[in-house]
Design goal:
The protein has three helices and five strands. The protein is of the alpha+beta class and 106 residues long. The protein has one domain. The model has no long low-confidence stretch (mean pLDDT 85). InterPro entries: MoCofactor_Util/Proc (IPR052698), XdhC_CoxI (IPR003777). Residues 14-81 form the XdhC- CoxI domain. Pfam families: XdhC_CoxI.
């Protein structure tokens, strides 16, 4: 992302271009989660994204879920952590836990 770029402006630009857009927001963390509550990731229907919800640990999984959110319009609450069966697949082996809310915005 370009330094200083505003994620909501990017989402608006993508929406004006007719692309489906989802917003992922960190809503809860525990332990050594790399991004604080309120961090965002904006995703388009082609899987292009800007921002970060985990410093690279779970972005791929969030982008995949966002594609479904864009397609069906149903928001999702995602949870990743070492106690979760997806922990090793998405890379949160550092001991943290993160909850991310994904919603369609365009």
């Amino acid at each position: 992302m370009t330094p200083g770029a505003d994620l909501l402006s990017i989402a608006e630009e993508w929406a004006r271009a007719g692309r489906g857009v989802a917003l992922a927001t960190v809503v809860e963390t525990w332990g050594s989660a790399p991004r604080p509550v309120g961090s965002h990731l904006v995703i388009d229907g082609d899987g292009r994204f800007e921002g970060s919800v985990s410093g690279g640990c779970v972005e791929g999984a969030v982008v995949a879920e966002a594609a479904e959110v864009i397609a069906d319009g149903a928001p999702r609450m995602l949870e990743f952590g070492v106690a979760d069966e997806t922990a090793w697949r998405v890379g949160l082996s550092c001991g943290g836990r993160i909850r991310v809310f994904v919603e369609k915005v365009a």
